[in-house]
Amino acid sequence: xxxxxxxxxGLVQPGESLxxxxxxxxxxxxxxxxGWYRQAPGKQREWVATISSSYDTNYADSVKxxxxxxxxxxxxxxxxxxxxxxxxxxxxxxxxxxxLRAQGEDDYWGQGTQVTVSS
Length: 119
Description:
Layout: E1 3-7, E2 10-12, E3 18-25, E4 33-39, E5 46-51, E6 57-59, E7 67-72, E8 77-82, E9 91-101, E10 104-109, E11 113-117
Parallel strand pairs: 2-11
Antiparallel strand pairs: 1-3, 3-8, 4-5, 4-9, 5-6, 7-8, 9-10, 9-11
C-alpha cells in the first residue's frame, strides 16, 4: 500500500546533470527521514544521501559537493539533484523512507530508477 516511486533516471554523458524524484504516497511523508541509495552491477547497495524530517542533510563522501538532496513535503516528494556526473555514478538509484516508531522502524523502498553515465 505504501508507495515510493522514483523517476528521472536516464542516460547522460560525464559532466552532465540529472534530477531524480521520489514521490511518496500513503505515508505521513513529512515525518519520514528520506534517503537515496544506489546499487551498481556486482556491487553492494550504498547510501548516497539523507534528508531528515527537519531538513538536515548528509551525503556520502563520493557525492559530496556534486549531489543535493531536497524535499517538498507539500508534494510528498524527495529529490536528488546530481551534477557533474561521473561514470562511477552509474547505478540503480533507490528512494528510501524511514520512520522510527515505538514498536520499531518503518522502512520503505522504491523500485529504483536507472542512471547511466557514459560517453
